[in-house]
Amino acid sequence: MNQETTGRNCRLGKAQRAQHRGGLLGTLRFAQPTWLLLIGLFAASMAAASDPINFYAATTAPFAQPGGGSLQIDSLKGRPAVINFWATWCPPCRQELPLLVKAHKRYGKQVGFLGLAVEDNAEFVGEYAGAYGLKYPIAAGREPAIALMQALGNEKAGMPYTVVLDGEGRVVYSKRGLVTAKDLSGALAPLLRP
Description:
5 strands; Glutaredoxin; globular
């Protein structure tokens, strides 16, 4: 008897189905402006997410340079740049440094280079960079570097992390992990004047 009752309660007659559909459609008609608003907000957020990130707008905290003072990031403005986030304790970062030295020798007259160490001891970072032959500007700052990496799209702050900027400071290429000569030449080629 329970099965029959349950069965009858679950089945709707024609009149009940029509009333139920009207109620559902009425609810959907009422909710339509809300759905359109949500869809519009989602589309706007997706469009904003696809806009290039501007490095100069994302850089808010100072970075310490070896020998004292703060890094003047504005010195990179107006030309393409390669920004590399690294650390002395990061084996892949150390593996990548000789490639960056070669890239700087090759592109340094047309492209700005900057090494941002995810460490607080700028003096140690300077000595370390000197041992690897880094001739481009370097700076250190653990917390500011992590925050900047995250603002540039590297949410997990994994390293090494390399970004290439156009002359306006927009990120046109980024890679978490070892960057290759092919990666850099491919990212820089459209930005360099013939």
